[in-house]
């Protein structure tokens, strides 16, 4: 088994957790990861466990606008171009103000979080983490002819959701995480999701920074960088961390709000120093870097991945590669055990 130089400090939960209810998440996680969490999400349980798939319901009044996939290879089924008149008719079907419901879930869960924090079940230092997707992660559920037309309406809806969350949750208890996933499909040229704007890289950074800059100055902000988890597979395998570092550097330059944490995935087979080498090119000091190198039933491999990462970067915390919402229920215990075993407390 590889030798870890120093136990990584702290654990980050990406968002979704493979438990039945929010109450289960808030009750079971804190004692399993004692003094290792700076933030606690609600687990994105129920219909939210497949990332943004549930947001299709936002556009239910105009089903023709929703993308369909080939069940055999998950490729997008092409939709013929629509006329201006057809597009106008589709837009007219949608509510004047789209509603994402992210704020509804966040506020309901925060009430449960607050009760448990007051009783001491959740440590006093723990913030309530709300994960919200980068814009393209939802717009990409739409068929190609409708994306650019509907995007501004959805962007406004996300801004309203964020504002309501910030209006009703104490800022010193709130942390916002922006999930960046489909963006990497665009950048890597994966057929899973193709870009609908050009130039791609600046367009991605512009959309993410516009949203990030809506986060209040006294609310923590972090980013989850992701290569997908559909069927427990990436939409494309990352060559190394180079593109994630490039995105992180660009976000830092574009966003006026401080970035408190960044999470990056580490595929199970990547125990080589080369995967982590580009982390040397981060142009700013990330207060909290979390590497998603914990995989179920693989503490030995996890320690090897940690040892390889420590050849490049000394200070980081640990996490799973992605959210656990789609992870088999029977893997929950081993993941918690490994997260706890390979990390040190933050307090």
How much of the residues is beta strand, in percent?
5-15%
CATH C-level category: Alpha Beta
Principal-axis shape equals globular
- Number of folding domains? 1
Radius of gyration: 20 Å
Oligomer: single chain
H/E series, N to C? Answer: HEHHEHHEHHEHEHEHEH
Q: Quickly count the helices.
A: 11
Going by helix content, strand content and strand pairing, the class is: alpha/beta
Strand order of the largest sheet: 1-2-3-4-5-6-7
Fraction in helix: 25-40%
Mind telling me which CATH architecture this is? Alpha-Beta Barrel
Task: Give the mean pLDDT.
Answer: 94
Q: Which sheet architecture does the biggest sheet show? A: 7 strands, parallel
Beta strand count: 7
Task: Give the N-to-C terminal Cα separation.
Answer: 27 Å
CATH topology (level 3) name: TIM Barrel
Uncertain parts: none
Notes on the protein architecture:
Helices cover 36% and strands 11% of the residues. The protein is globular and about 65 Å long. The longest helix has 22 residues. The protein has a single domain, classed as TIM Barrel (Alpha-Beta Barrel), CATH 3.20.20. It has a 7-stranded parallel beta sheet. The chain has 11 helices and 7 strands. The two termini are 27 Å apart. By secondary structure, the protein is an alpha/beta fold. InterPro entries: UROD/MetE-like_sf.
């Amino acid at each position: 088994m590889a030798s870890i130089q120093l136990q990584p400090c702290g654990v980050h939960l990406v968002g979704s957790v493979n438990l039945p209810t929010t109450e289960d998440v808030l009750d079971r996680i804190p004692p399993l990861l004692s003094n290792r969490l700076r933030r606690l999400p609600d687990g994105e349980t129920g219909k939210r466990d497949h990332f943004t798939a549930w947001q299709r319901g936002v556009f239910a009044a105009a089903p023709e606008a929703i993308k369909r996939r080939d069940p055999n290879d998950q490729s997008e089924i092409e939709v013929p171009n629509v006329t201006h008149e057809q597009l106008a008719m589709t837009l007219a079907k949608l509510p004047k103000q789209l509603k994402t419901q992210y704020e509804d879930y966040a506020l309901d869960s925060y009430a449960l979080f607050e009760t448990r924090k007051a009783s001491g079940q959740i440590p006093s230092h723990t913030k309530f983490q709300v994960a919200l997707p980068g814009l393209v992660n939802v717009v990409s559920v739409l068929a190609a002819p409708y994306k650019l037309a509907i995007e501004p309406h959805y962007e406004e809806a996300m801004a309203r959701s964020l504002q309501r969350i910030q209006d009703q949750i104490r800022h010193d208890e709130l942390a916002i995480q922006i999930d960046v996933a489909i963006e990497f499909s665009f950048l890597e040229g994966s057929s899973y999701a193709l870009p609908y704007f050009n130039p791609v890289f600046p367009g991605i950074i512009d959309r993410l920074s516009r949203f990030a800059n809506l986060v209040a100055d006294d609310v923590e902000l972090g980013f989850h960088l992701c290569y997908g988890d559909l069927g427990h597979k990436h939409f494309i395998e990352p060559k190394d961390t180079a593109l994630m570092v490039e995105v992180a550097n660009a976000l830092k330059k574009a966003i006026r709000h401080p970035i408190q944490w960044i999470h990056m995935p580490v595929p199970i087979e990547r125990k080589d120093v080369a995967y982590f080498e580009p982390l040397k090119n981060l142009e700013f000091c990330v207060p909290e870097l979390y590497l998603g190198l914990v995989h179920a039933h693989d503490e030995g491999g996890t320690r090897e991945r940690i040892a390889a990462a420590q050849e490049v970067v000394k200070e980081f915390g640990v996490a799973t590669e992605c959210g656990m919402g789609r992870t088999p229920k029977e893997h929950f215990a081993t993941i918690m055990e490994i997260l706890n075993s390979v990390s040190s407390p933050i307090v």
